[in-house]
Design a protein that fits this description.
The protein contains 16 helices and 17 strands. The chain has 475 residues and is of the alpha/beta class.
Length: 475
């Protein structure tokens, strides 16, 4: 495996220069000022140097006409200038012995014009001669709350244990926001765009060695050095889960990646094969990615594909079983012992105790619920429990007291059952219940209980974790 590059001063810079800061005020977008505001929000403890040709101060910080006018060392320079100015700015960075540069600036290889690609090539040559490492170009850059970095002031300042590298700044931003809504927070995120210098495998190797990162996530469109990434992923995935969303899966999507980040998407079938061989956990949407991370963080890996389905009445149980088996899971009958014990307390009329379990109304009795959980814990036919519940079922029957009791039980049940529980909280048609569901979900995830919005999402997540579990067992 290629050794990890030393990126410490990239994520923990002692000084930042922002070239392309703006004097404009009010509701006017300025990428340079967004970075400064973002660092203020994240309590950046180092020095910030706005660079502007005529301003004296921007956002309370003394301005400098050029990089050359700044006294002292500069760890990171952020380019928010037109593509026509980047070579001159890079020359100034070389003179100042800058360690890292991040180019928000776009308009290079991704345009498809040979002249723009040539500028990017010259940019990289200048940087290499000076020993400067490049993030980008054409990217949002860095978010590291512990290091005081953010590309805007809307990002959470809570420090987590997830690392992410993404070729899309938009999807990186959405991942951080969506993760926060599910109680998932990040240690380090980098949006790296065209990857003219630092590549996907460089960030992967760095995050693999970072003890502050437990789960690694990526959004990729194409890999210019696929073998290096594959080799890194194969060794890293057995130690840290690697969840990857691959863009450009279709012919049209592959074309779009070229104009977005100059990435050649390659064959999606090849990508799927790479995931299987390297232990990568693949996802296909933001929703799948967030709930897969949640499951990796909060659930034990499944030991098998057999699940008990609880919560679907009649047709609901049938369709849930269909979704499970289409995903590659199995819904077997419970053991004869479990069935016999359940039949002692559950009437046969209008119920099914074989699996899927159409017995939810009878679980109003705490004794019946406890009996079912004890049987599922011991049942050798069952590897995991899928519990689909509309909160209205509890709320209308027992009010907030019943809901609060349900929350307390679920926060304790996961560890006691010793089998993963995929809790699906359904809601529809009622704003009050929707708000209640959100409140309950926030409480559950705070107590390390994974919650899913639909059976289909939960089934897909378990299958991905099952594949990952089998990969770890064989490697």
């Amino acid at each position: 495996m290629t050794s990890a590059p030393d990126l410490h001063n990239l994520f923990y810079p002692r000084s930042i220069a922002v070239v392309g800061s703006s004097t404009k005020r009010g509701f006017v977008w300025s990428s340079g000022n967004a970075y400064i505001n973002g660092c203020i929000k994240q309590s950046f403890h180092g020095k910030i140097f706005p660079v502007h040709p005529s301003a004296d101060y921007i956002l309370g910080y003394k301005c400098y006409r050029t990089i050359r006018d700044i006294r002292g060392d500069i760890d990171l320079v952020i380019f928010c200038v037109p593509a026509s100015a980047v070579l001159d700015v890079m020359d100034a960075c070389a003179e100042k012995k800058v360690k890292f540069v991040h180019l928000l600036t776009a308009g290079f290889t991704e345009t498809g014009r040979a002249s723009d690609a040539e500028v990017e090539k010259k940019l990289v040559e200048k940087a290499r001669m000076a020993g400067i490492r490049i993030v980008g170009p054409n990217c949002m850059g860095l978010y590291c709350p512990e290091g005081g970095l953010s590309w805007n002031s809307e990002m959470p300042d809570k420090i987590g244990k997830i690392g992410m590298f993404s070729q899309s700044g938009q999807l990186a931003t959405m991942s951080v926001a969506s993760g926060a809504s599910e109680g998932l927070f990040f240690s380090k995120v980098v949006s790296f765009g065209n990857a003219s210098d630092l590549k996907a495998h460089d960030y992967l190797n760095y995050m693999a060695e970072d003890p502050k990162i437990e789960i690694i996530v990526a959004y990729l469109e194409g890999l210019t050095e696929g073998r290096a990434f594959f080799d890194a992923a194969k060794k890293i995935s057995a130690l840290k889960p690697l969840v990857v969303w691959k863009g450009g899966q279709t012919e049209g999507g592959a074309r779009a990646t070229q104009s977005h980040t100059a990435a050649m998407a390659g064959s999606f079938h090849v990508w799927q094969s790479m995931c299987r061989q390297a232990g990568i956990i693949p996802v296909n949407s933001m929703e799948e990615m967030i709930y897969t991370i949640s499951a990796v963080k909060r659930l034990s890996l499944p030991r098998g594909s057999n699940i008990a389905v609880l919560g679907g009445a009649g047709g609901g149980g049938v369709t849930m079983t269909d979704h499970a088996e289409k995903a590659g899971l199995h819904v077997p009958h419970l053991s004869e012992k479990s069935i016999a014990k359940l039949q002692e307390v559950i009437p046969l009329e209008g119920s099914s105790v074989r699996n899927p379990l159409d017995i939810l109304p009878h679980l109003r009795s705490r004794e019946n619920f406890q009996k079912l959980m004890e049987l599922l814990k011991e049942d050798p036919h069952i590897d995991a429990l899928f519990f689909a519940l509309h909160l209205g079922f509890i709320y209308r029957d027992a009010g907030r007291v019943g809901v609060n009791y349900f929350v307390r039980i679920m926060t304790k049940l996961q560890e006691w059952l010793e089998k993963p529980i995929y809790l699906i909280l359904e809601t529809f048609g009622d704003a009050q219940l929707f708000a209640l569901r959100r409140e309950v979900e926030e409480t559950l995830v705070a107590h390390k209980t994974a919650v899913f919005p639909s059976f289909e999402i939960a089934a897909g997540v378990m299958k991905r974790l099952l594949d990952y579990s089998e990969y770890k067992t064989m490697n």
